[in-house]
Amino acid sequence: MRFDTSMMGVPSVTFATTPLSARFFEDAAKLIARYPDGESRAALLPLLYLVQSEHGFVSSQGITAISKLLGLTRAEIAGVASFYTMFKRTPQGTWLISVCTQPSCAFAGANEIITKLQELLGISCGATTPDQMISIEEVECLCACDGAPVFSVNYETYEGMSVDDAVALVGGLRDGATPPAGARGDVPADFKTVSRRMSGVEAPR
Amino acid sequence: MSDVTLTIDGRSVTVPAGTLVIRAAEKLGIYVPRFCDHPLLDPVGACRQCIVEVEGQRKPLTACTTTVADGMIVKTQMSSPMAADAQEGVLELLLINHPLDCPMCDKGGECPLQDQALAYGPDGSRFIDTKRRFTKPVAISPLVKLDRERCVLCARCTRFSEQIAGDPFIELLERGALEQVAIYEDEPYVSEFSGNVIQICPVGALTSSTFRFKARPFDMTTTVSTCNRCASGCTLLVQERRGDLVRILSGTNAQTQDEWICDKGRFGYAYSQSAERITEPLMRKGDSFVPISWAEAIATISDRVRGARDAREGLAAIGGAQLCDEDAYALSRFARVVLGTNDVDAWFGGASGADDAVLQQIAAGAPTAGFAEIDAAATIVVAGMDLREVSPIVHLRVRKAARNRGARIIEIGPRRSRLSEMGAEWIPTRPGGEASALEALQLEGSTVVLVGDQLRGDGSFASAWNLALERGWSFGWVPRKANARGALAAGCAPGVLPGGRSILDDAGRAEVQRLWNAPPPARAGRDGATILRDAANLEVLFILGADPVADAAGSVRAGAAVDAAAFVVAIDVLLTETARRADLILPATATYERAGTLTSWEGRRQPVRASVSPAGLAQDDRLILGQIAAELGHTSFPTTRAALSAELERLLAARTGEGARVELEARDADTSGLVLHVAPRLLDDGAMMHGSSALARTGSVPRIELNPADAAAAGIAEGDRAAIETVHGRATAEAVLDARVAPGVIVVPAQRAPLDGVDLINVNGRTSVKLSKVDA
Amino acid sequence: MSATIVETKVLTKRWDDAANVSLGGYGGYTALKEALSMAPDEIIAIVKDSNLRGRGGAGFPTGMKWSFIPKDRRPSYIVCNFDEGEPGTFKDRELVERDPHQLLEGMAIASVAIGSNAMYLYCRGEFAYAARILERAIAECYEAGIFGTSSMGSGYALDCILVRGAGAYICGEETALLESIEGKRGQPRLRPPFPATHGLFNKPTVVNNVETFACVPHILLNGADWFKGIGTEKAPGTKLFCISGDVERPGNYEVPFGTSARDLIEGLAGGVKGGKALKAFTPGGASSTPFFGPDKLDVGMDWESVQAAGSLLGTGAIVVFDETRCMVRAAWRYTAFYAHESCGKCTPCREGTYWLREALERFEDRRGRKEDLDTLLDVAGNIIGRSFCALGDFSIAPVTSTIANWRKDYEAHIGTGGGCPIES
Q1: Is B104 exposed, middle or buried (0-12, 13-18, 19+ CB in 10 A)?
Q2: CA-CA to B718 of 20 to 30 Å: which in B193, B325, B603, C69?
Q3: Residue B771's Cα: distance from chain center in Å?
Q4: Could you tell me how many helices (H) and strands (E) chain C has, helices first?
Q5: Closest Cα to residue C136, out of C14, C22, C29?
Q6: Rounded to an integer, what distance in angstroms lies between the CA atom of residue B724 and that of residue B773?
Q7: Which span out of A1-10, A195-204, B469-478, B632-641 was modeled with the highest average pLDDT?
Q8: Whole-number Å distance between alpha carbons of B626 and B621
Q9: Cβ contacts (< 8 Å) between A37 and chain C: which residues?
């Protein structure tokens, strides 16, 4: 995990190409209502996931909408969104590949997976393919170390795969295949759908 | 709460319970280095610089977050090698990513990082790897520049913005070594108080764009003075270099401003050094002005005064609310003795006998509220003004009362202000309805009611006064103009002689006469608005430090008035709209060039001191008047500052009065239909904003503010262009729908070109207004 | 090598059958039923008596923590810390995925004990599968009347709200976790006041780890004495140890406290992979702790023994490094983790982890200098005990322990370039 020592610009603001849907605002109201009176700010992280479910990242429109819903300034919201790595600043691909490179996974080939994925897709870590299919990122421990190497597709883990099999899986995704079932037996949904689940709006309670 | 005794570096100190160790150490003269700690901000313990050793604790503690305990034994860096080592370690760590910018950093020479690194830090750095770098500087507002590389993440600026000002437009973004202060890209850090973060930033991360690269601290001379941009009464540190003003900082006064000033006071001094200054007397010749000598100017004026056919009708003077007490006093004396008239007034907003009776009591020393009442009251009622625009530091004090003590705030008026962020309850009223709303209040516990100038002119002011006396509330008057209270006490009012003595009171007149060697005129004077309305009958009109053409309410038709008067003498700093219509303009010193006294809204008299020399041939207003008086043969008119001050002090001495109820006049019934409310703005197009372009850019966009129901009734949607029309004229602007506007009221700013509410409003009473949509 | 070591399955006893994930497979929440009929103080007394200690890393006595909740301030909250993020730790995830109701029952009993009606379950954002399991389990509980306005017909209300993290390890720190639930940046809070009196939404709050809550139903059903009969005197009960890295059989293993590292690594996990020699292992996860060498294999895995041997038990995450591994790279990778996860609030952690990581990166590239070693140790000394929260304290352990015990690895990295000479 090398630190990029090149000069950093100002935090950027990216606009999404579509407006937020009416459903967003209905869902937002539901999420805000879950918290005690006067504690609506607690809905901020769920709302950021909800924005991400519409736009594939935390868009400027999303921040503005949340600002009005919760009575916070946009700087405050950007402050929270930028603190957490799972809130993305640029549109993510349909499939977000997160590869853990902590020692247990590194021993099992995680660094090779990263290198080969970058070669395969022609993008560097943290970027998204031009066709908006795949994003790759290096992450910290995914806490499934007994299944090293561990990587996830939209947070569905794949464990104990060889470097070649892992790379082939991603290659398949790039070519339009649906992903196979992950280590727990479920097939991951696309990034936006998964983000929506993370907001908790679909939870039974 | 009892006191606590503890030992710091072997010395004993007793402090109130709840004191932080770092403050207790200061009482002993022991300075523990710090960055994030600030006595007026909630402690965070983030920088870890103030580490001290506390006996019995297994880890060192931060002095800024540790409260004292009885018998605590503390060792600072003065007596604990571990604490000294820890502090050196923190400084070394702070410096690893800090750029070596000192030679080009504005903070150099007054930088806590420099000073503390020198005193407590390592000799050099052992870090040889690459620092994290940010593009810099970033203009986060027209006034403030941010350098993220220099930032030590003390969060003073973000805490100030959120806790004190209520403007969290800067926040911490990211985390870890990338943590940085930032704005949201298209939401600049616009806040009336933004300049304070520059002053409290302990490094050169936040710098002033007007001061950038101008001077080193050791090259500047600092003068302690008082601000004259509003009536809050803030202490300023005015700094000059080689005769030029380069910077203004906030002074410290725990009783008034704490350590804060607003951006107008801090950044708005450019007018005094602009090319638009009047530097010599100017005489009108046709459509233009030609410079003349002081001698010729004084002679011309004196001729005019001498030749005025009927002194009692033909001579008048207005102004004085922006000047020092001594200048206002000179004007009052000049009008009565030299012009022989009581037609002198600092106020041209329309008069009411009842209001004037109250103001006379205030001038005579009746008790009024101040910051101390705000600090203590259980309930604070604000009527007839948006404190944040009219008197920002009073606004901050009210905010503090709510935030720190949970004081209840009630605001009454046509528009809800940002006090709502502190849970203020809003009683919406139409203009003129404030008095009855006050009456309807049922309150318990101590109460202070703060009343603004919007209640003057129709007896509402007097109503509030009576009510406060009846209910045992403290009454505070927060005027719009900086020295309105001082001018009043100095006698710049038609019915009031210096010291609040009524012109009808024989004993008072006698006292004044003894000092002036001349009787004050007996005949009642006209108020400012009336003077202007009758201007066609005036032979000579004196206007001192006032710009009624720009900021007097419309029906006075000040522009035409000034044209109609036979001869107008304007004494001012800049070529204002009023001055442009005068016949003779005399250059006055700006506030930074004069010495004197200002009286704040509390009645607190504070000194103004000169920092720089007068521009060109400018003189103090009081001296100019003295010279005219002398030319007209009034040999006893004081011609020096000292003599004037002495007279004024004598007249103000021992003025204590009791407040008493005044008789109220019948008030007009409310009109029906839409009415106009003009809201003063802190950053407007007033003459003294001239030249401060960066500051002006932080002002709000002028819009017509409508209650959503009224907008809907007129078929106006957000962003549409709307037109408003009163008997005085018409104006158009973008409409904004806001539930914070009372129904039936349309709010426009005063003096925010191209929308100037004062042109459209009546002097007294309500102004009916018609609203329509402007088709594209 | 102990060939006969077996697990003591208490928390993991239902893991073998997938049917136990559902409420039907789990059973009837009998412990909660009993708790609902007890006085809150009785419950706290049993937990106190059992000497149950927090399994999130700190080892604080759980019963005592619960007893700090003031009786007169309401509402109060139970918060479950499921923000497992420590490299090498994966016990909470498996506990939740295989036996969610055990956790929920433990949380519910804790709620009754402190008089709280609302439980917040903070689930790490990346745990998509575990979150789905929890959503289903919570829904089952509501359907069955275990959660709701009258838990199991008792009249006592119990609500459970699942909240998600969003990718910040620091949110595993209890006050940072509370900040995160409240919709803020996950930066730890100043203490005092403590969460017991001013926690979630400024109300009295208990924050406990998943594994800690999971113990509670068993203690209530089997009694404090039973619990104390397992493990050591100061560390009763069982502990899940997560073993990964260069071992034959990585996985979660539940054993009594005090079981030796050797029994865990060589006994249960099958020894170092490929028969290689053991070079180093973390006793308790990257967080926390100085690495141990093979000389520490016989240390009993409990808080006191590990601390006496010079490290910390932490979460019980044992990562094994075989003889081919480079300790410089390990230190670099863990330090990069801390630098990435540092919240940035305090100078020592924010700047210190930056410095350490940059210097270690230089070493990784074989551009280390001899004088750097003492400098790094000194920098580490300026961080520990000086930072705002424990992340700073723990961040230096990889560097300090590897320099102390594997200085040769570092010396091999002194030079002017060429990459790691030990690992490829």
Answers
A1: exposed
A2: B193
A3: 33
A4: 18, 8
A5: C22
A6: 9
A7: B469-478
A8: 9
A9: none
- Best CA proximity match to B459, nearest among B357, B556, B388, B588: B357
Distance of CA C205 to the CA centre of its chain: 19
As for how many domains chain B has, the answer is: 5
Do C198 and A119 contact (CB within 8 A), yes or no?
no
Question: Kind of pairing, strands B235-241 and B221-226?
Answer: antiparallel
> Pairing between strand B51-54 and B11-16?
unpaired
The pLDDT of residue C312 is above 90: no
Residue with tokens 């003294």: B688
**Residues B297, B267: one domain?**
no
Collapsing DSSP to helix, strand or coil, B578 comes out as helix
- Written as one string, the DSSP assignment of B166-230 is --TTSEEES-GGG-EEE-BTTB----TTTHHHHHH-SSTTEEETTTTTT--GGG-EEEEEE--SS
Q: What letters, b where the CB count within 10 A reaches 16 and e where it falls short, cover B752-775?
A: beebbbbbbbbbbbbbebebebee
Look at residue C56 in the predicted model and tell me its pLDDT: 86
Are residue B618 and residue B649 in the same domain, yes or no? Answer: yes
In a domain, B176, yes or no: yes
CB-CB contact of B156 with B202 (8 Å): yes
**CA nearest neighbour of B455 among B355, B592, B341:** B355
- Above 80 in pLDDT, residue A136? yes
Q: What's the rounded Cα separation, in Å, for the pair B706 and B34?
A: 48
Measured between CA atoms, how close is A88 to chain B, in angstroms?
Answer: 12
Q: Copy the structure tokens of residue C86.
A: 């420590």
User: What is the ipTM for the molecules in this complex?
Assistant: 0.96
Q: Is the pLDDT of residue C1 over 50?
A: no
Residues B231 and B260 in one domain: yes
Q: CB of B498 within 8 A of CB of B490?
A: yes
Residues with Cβ within 8 Å of B67's Cβ and at least 6 positions away in sequence, in order, are B17, B18, B19, B20, B21
CA atoms within 13 A on the CB side of B435: 23
For residue B312, pLDDT over 60 is answered with no
* Residues of A in Cβ contact (< 8 Å) with C185: 79-80, 83
Check B177 against C353: CB less than 8 A apart: yes
Helices (H), B458-614: 460-471, 484-489, 506-516, 528-533, 548-551, 558-564, 577-580
Contact C78, C206 (CB under 8 A): yes
Tokens of C333: 């990778």
Is C354 near chain A, with CB under 8 Å? yes
**What tokens does B156 get?**
């003073």
Question: What are the CA-CA distances from residue B227 to residues A89, C200, C361, C379 (Å)?
Answer: 45, 45, 55, 49
Cβ contact B184–A6 (<8 Å): no
Query: From the CA of C46, how many Å to the nearest CA of chain A?
Result: 32
User: Are residues B507 and B568 located together in one domain of the fold?
Assistant: yes
As a whole number of angstroms, the distance between CA B263 and CA B387 comes to 15
Domain hosting B311: range is: 293-348+485-653
Q: Between C170, C185, C353, which is nearest B172 by CB?
A: C185
Q: Verify that B333 and B359 share a domain, yes or no.
A: no
Beta strand segments in chain A, E: 95-100, 134-139, 150-153, 156-159
Same domain, B137 and B252: yes
Chain B: residues touching C (Cβ < 8 Å): 43-49, 51, 59-60, 65, 85-86, 89-90, 92-94, 96-97, 126-127, 129-130, 132, 152-153, 172, 174-179
Structure tokens at C186: 């996950």
- Reduced to 3 states (helix: H, G, I; strand: E, B; else coil), residue C194 is coil
Whether residue B455 is contained in a domain is answered as yes
pLDDT in tens, B13-43: 999 999 999 999 999 999 999 999 999 999 9
